[in-house]
Specification:
Urease, subunit C, domain 1; TIM Barrel; alpha/beta; binds zinc ion; 9-stranded parallel sheet; EC 3.5.99.4; Metallo-hydrolase_Enzymes; Amidohydro_3; hydrolase
Length: 399
């Protein structure tokens, strides 16, 4: 276990500009005291928060570490339009880069240095790559095991039913260390939503693991699949263990149907993640949160063959969520930070906070207020995970 860590001179959220700074003591990986001028226990590590804003650590609730090219020479986008063209383009080129483990480890390091100590990454499992990409992400998780909690999803990027052998590979991926089973647009990709979802949930039952389903299908087709997911959650007793990523249906059905879907998600404790996409209407964030739906934020692909966007910075993605929502008021921007921190952690089954007894996974960000910190996005002064400083001034430190 880590020893004591004393963080001096920070302003815990909500962090009014004139608020006096406090010190924060972390003992055995837990926040144990807040107050002015706390005495340092013998042998404690003491670090200076330099008046920064103290937040719970960020969570990237939806990443694709297996495809990242962050840090490599920039490569112009070469895919044609549509999902099939994107998949084919990635298949043509992904082996030309350095090994997945190296790329994923570097990008996960950037993510952590930017303040996210909780990450859920999908890893493509298909008949082209087998388990190679999954193994690369598992290696990245191992390389940063003292710096972050990482969950890995066995993700059928090319569908499950279209290419023979995919279901067996997903089964093998869960035996090889994947934490959750994924899925992808059961209706529009595999054109058989019942068989796709039954395969996903039977693997979840077999391996006693959670589910994180990509669902881009919108309108009534997407809504129908949300209902199919909730039916399976109820039948298998999987409340709290299932996430729907993207869930564009929520913002593309009428208001009445949207309300019914939100209530259904809340009733079955099915979480939702968004990546604050530029080309789609934002999800009904307030409505989801009011209903008690766990809601997280993610980077999605991070500069890869799919897209040039993404840099591993979840504070930047919180800015994007606020910007896409058209938010100006501080409480609205702070809601986005809450989704990017505590919200995403809850999707991963973790409880982060800034009260005594919370896990000592926090980030210190320069800025007058939380909203100012989102707008400025200065390098993070400190990133702490499980009671240890894992990054300082935007760079990883040795643990
Ligand atoms: Zn994704």
């Amino acid at each position: 276990m880590p020893g004591d860590l004393l963080i001096r001179s920070v302003r815990p959220w909500p962090a009014d500009p004139g608020a006096p700074t406090v010190d924060v003591l972390c003992s055995n990986g837990t926040l144990t005291a807040f107050g002015p001028h706390l005495p340092a226990p013998p042998g404690a590590t003491v670090v200076d928060g330099r008046n920064g804003v103290l937040l719970p650590a960020f969570t990237d609730a939806h990443a694709h570490l297996d495809s990242t090219r962050l840090g490599l020479p920039f490569r112009p986008h070469s895919a044609g339009p549509g999902l099939t063209a994107l998949v084919d383009n990635d298949r043509r080129h992904w082996r030309a880069d350095e090994p997945v483990a190296d790329r994923a480890t570097r990008t996960l390091g950037r993510t952590i240095a930017s303040g996210a100590t909780h990450v859920r990454s999908h890893a493509q499992v298909d008949v082209d790559s087998g388990l190679e990409r999954l193994e690369g992400v598992l290696a990245a998780r191992e390389a940063h095991r003292d710096r972050a909690l990482v969950q890995v999803v066995a993700f059928p990027q090319c569908g499950i039913l279209r290419e023979k052998g995919t279901a067996d590979l997903l089964d093998a991926a869960l035996r090889a260390g994947a934490d959750l089973i994924g899925g992808l647009d059961p209706a529009s990709v595999d054109r058989d939503p019942v068989k796709h979802l039954d395969t996903v949930f039977s693997l979840a039952e077999k391996h006693q693991c959670g589910v994180d389903l990509h669902l881009h299908d919108d309108g009534t087709l997407g809504a129908f699949q949300i209902e199919l997911v909730c039916e399976r959650v109820a039948a298998l007793g999987m409340r709290g263990e299932v996430t729907i990523s993207h869930a564009f249906a929520l913002s593309t059905v009428d208001d009445h149907r949207q309300g019914l879907l939100v209530d259904l998600l809340a009733e079955h404790d099915v979480a939702v993640t968004t990546v604050a996409p530029g080309a789609r209407d934002p999800l009904p964030l307030h409505r989801l949160r009011r209903a008690g739906v766990r809601l997280g934020l993610g980077q999605d692909g991070i500069r890869d063959h799919w897209s040039p966007y993404g840099d591993g910075d979840m504070l930047g993605r919180a800015w994007q969520l606020a910007y896409r929502g058209g938010f100006r008021r501080d409480d609205q921007v702070e809601m986005c930070v809450d989704i990017a921190t505590r919200g995403g952690a809850a999707v991963l089954g973790a409880r982060l906070g800034l009260t005594e007894g919370s896990p000592a996974s926090v980030v210190v960000v320069p800025g007058d207020t939380v909203t100012a910190a989102v707008m400025d996005r200065a390098p993070r002064a400190l990133v702490v995970h499980a009671g240890r400083v894992v990054a300082r001034d935007g760079e990883l430190v040795r643990t």
